[in-house]
Amino acid sequence: MKSLVVFLLFVVLVTSTAAQQPQTPPKKMSRIGYLSAVSATADKPRIEAFRRALRDLGYIEGQHVAIEYRYEPADFDRLTQMAAELVALKIDVLVTVTTNAAQAAQKVTRSLPIVFMGITDPVTAGLADSLAHPGRNATGVTNMAAILTGKRLELLKEAVAKISRVAVLWDPKGPGSIPQWNESQQPARDLGLQLYSMQVSTADAYEPAFKEAVKAGNQAVWVTLNPLANSNQKRIADLAMSHRLPSICAREDYADNGCLMAYGPGYAEEGRNGARYVDKILRGAKPAEIPVEQPMKFDLIINLKTAKQIALTIPPNVLARADKVIK
């Protein structure tokens, strides 16, 4: 019996070690297109994680893979043109960031494998038949932005107990932003919060939108994930601070740029997962048969510098739950 246990432990150890070792990449040089509806600067943490994960999987740029990058944070028509440019380069797989980019890619090709990241709801967006069985030429990872709206509003209410009116900053032209606004309604009612629709689709509209939100009596702001907001994080955070509005956002980089609180999965994890999907496809897997993954880990980040700026004291019980505190 003892020898059997030792043998089984040995098998588990060998299997685990082998699984961690990078496999030999396909012999031919693979070409990857990377299409992002986020600026290169805002997308940097995800790109770095994506490239690092590819290296960990055994892919050396210039030897096993070549990556072509395109960025367009504002113009959907231009995004579609860029998708067409990448497809014309005879790439093997097209990586897309945000719902806008994935939809632009599917307008151009229904056959080339697409790996999406930064997607709120791939089924509602028409990118997959279901999470378990995508059934089309696209698969990847979702950020669960709509599903987590209730938790973000709950955290905001815990941090600022007296608030009753919250402005929701969303972009009606951003397909990933719409479900976040919609999914905010019921949790807000459950929490006794009244939501204010703060619609912004151009960067120059942020300042007047904040003025109107304050004039309407809002006491805090919840910033939905969308390409426009992704590329204007500091501007949004500065406007919230200047109007003394506590803010909650969906990702760590927003808090790094001045948002009071952030709750959700990180860029880095998403980049690593995206690389895994690319690896599977380059080895012959079909996107239609690879289930869409949802993140398993969510971090709470609190920016105490911002709290100080707006003269807000974060309750100790909320602060104690933070995974990261910016001082």
The CATH topology of the largest domain corresponds to Rossmann fold
Q: Estimate percent helicity.
A: 40-55%
| Main sheet: strand order | 7-6-8-9-10-11-12
The CATH class of the largest domain is identified as Alpha Beta
Helix and strand sequence: HEHEHEHEEHEHEHEHHEHEHEHHE
CATH architecture of the largest domain: 3-Layer(aba) Sandwich
Number-wise, the strands total 12
Classify the oligomer: single chain
Number of domains: 2
Spans of 5+ residues with little confidence (pLDDT < 50)? 1-21
- Assign an overall shape: elongated
Task: Describe this structure as you would to a colleague.
This protein is α/β, with parallel strands linked by helices and 327 residues long. The protein has two domains: 29-143 and 267-289, Response regulator (Rossmann fold); 149-264 and 299-326, 3-Layer(aba) Sandwich (Rossmann fold), CATH 3.40.50.2300. It has 13 helices and twelve strands. It has helices at 2-20, 44-56, 76-88, 99-108, 149-159, 177-190, 206-215, 227-230, 233-242, 252-256, 267-282, 304-309, 316-319; strands at residues 30-36, 65-71, 93-97, 114-119, 138-142, 165-170, 194-199, 220-223, 247-249, 261-264, 299-303, 324-326. A seven-stranded mixed beta sheet has the order 7-6-8-9-10-11-12, sandwiched between helices. A five-stranded parallel beta sheet has the order 2-1-3-4-5, with helices on both faces. Helix 2 packs across helix 11, helix 3 (76-88) packs across helix 4 (99-108) and helix 5 (149-159) packs across helix 6 (177-190).
